[in-house]
Design goal:
Its EC number is 1.11.1.7. Keywords: Calcium, Disulfide bond, Heme, Hydrogen peroxide, Iron, Metal-binding, Oxidoreductase, Peroxidase, Secreted, Signal. Heme b binds at residue 192. This protein starts with 8 loop residues before the first helix and ends in a 20-residue tail after the last helix. The protein has helices at 9-23, 41-55, 59-71, 100-113, 120-134, 168-176, 182-188, 223-233, 256-262, 269-276, 278-289, 291-306, and strands at 196-198, 206-208, 214-216, 242-244. The strands form 2 sheets. Strands 1-4 form a two-stranded antiparallel sheet. A two-stranded antiparallel ribbon has the order 2-3. 43% of the residues are buried. Helices cover 44% and strands 4% of the residues.
């Protein structure tokens, strides 16, 4: 689905000034970084994402989540892609990640035309960017030039990723440690407007009664929505079942997520927390009422996310295969 959103002149100027300030702190990243060395790189990633999405509409949500889990652990260096015992990818906190085959397909296509040139870290960031566009969201320009990390340790995962039962203060601390603000937290939580989650990611909002049936224990959740979730997740096979993050427009990147929060239909405790706290409620209400504002703020916050802890120059490498270091 092509996006109908484009920045107007004023918004574009604001975004360019914002991006310019970010690039001063990461001088080795630039727009069109591969213009001379691999001009087709971004086209190949975008085409791969679109093709994968056309056959599997869950792909955008998976690619977006993959970027979050990569950037929050050791920075945006594709360390989450490395396979093997004791790697980030092997940690239970990353067991439900997907989209790896899309990254590999894009990397393989690029390697044929531009061997040892484009980093897996850039491909992950570009694929997440293109996933949003493929789901009908804004077109975002991001700088490239990231290098791939040379290590990946499972021990780094749990202290850095956000659990779905975190309090707002815990989330604020986690985002702050990555150089992201409370506004970035609210805006980037909008990623939950697409994608799906396993029942065990939110079943802490319920408990089993004496007959083994679920009952609601989280008063911040709408009763009818809670009933739907409990019915979906009550079977013995619930560990393998998934529920759409957004019960209204699950495959469209829009601001419905925030409207869901206003009606107490946030899937996770971390979602509901944004509406329950005065520090974030006003932002939720603003984004719920103005999709263009959400898209503009998303563009800014997404770029910031994609630049967390990037490795440049001699700090990293260009992997030949995204699943293993050279």
């Amino acid at each position: 689905m092509a996006s109908s959103y484009r920045l107007n002149y004023s918004s574009l100027l604001h975004l360019l000034l914002f991006l310019s300030s970010l690039l001063t702190s990461s001088a080795n990243l630039s727009f069109n970084f591969y213009a001379g060395s691999c001009s087709v790189a971004e086209f190949l990633v975008r085409n791969t994402v679109r093709s994968a999405t056309s056959s599997d509409p869950t792909i955008p949500g998976k690619l977006l989540r993959l970027l979050f889990h990569d950037c929050f652990v050791q920075g945006c260096d594709a360390s989450v892609l490395i396979q093997g015992n004791g790697t980030e990818r092997s940690d239970p906190g990353n067991a439900s990640l997907g989209g790896f085959s899309v990254i590999d397909t894009a990397k393989n296509a690029i390697e044929i035309l531009c061997p040892a040139t484009v980093s897996c870290a850039d491909i992950v960031a570009l694929a997440a960017r293109d996933a949003v566009e493929a789901a009908g969201g804004p077109v975002v320009e991001i700088p490239t030039g990231r290098r791939d990390g040379k290590e990946s340790m499972a021990a780094n995962v749990r202290p850095n990723i956000i659990d779905t039962d975190f309090t707002l203060d815990q989330m604020i601390d986690a985002f702050s440690s990555k150089g992201l603000s409370i506004q970035d937290l609210v805006v980037l939580s909008g990623a939950h407007t697409i994608g799906a989650s396993h029942c065990n990611a939110f079943n802490g909002r319920f408990q089993r009664d004496s007959k083994g049936n679920f009952e609601l224990i989280d008063a911040s959740l709408d009763n009818s929505y809670a009933e739907t979730l409990m019915n979906k997740c009550s079977s013995s096979e619930s560990s393998s079942l998934t529920v759409s993050n957004d019960p209204e427009t699950s495959s469209i990147f829009d601001n419905q997520y925030y409207r869901n929060l206003e009606t107490h239909k946030g899937l996770f405790q971390t979602d509901s927390a944004l509406m329950e706290d005065n520090r974030t409620r006003t932002m939720v209400e603003e984004l719920a009422s103005d999709e263009e504002s959400f898209y503009q703020r998303w563009s800014e916050s997404f770029v910031k996310l994609s630049m967390v802890g990037v490795k440049v120059g001699e700090d990293g490498e260009i992997r030949r295969s995204c699943s293993s270091i050279n």
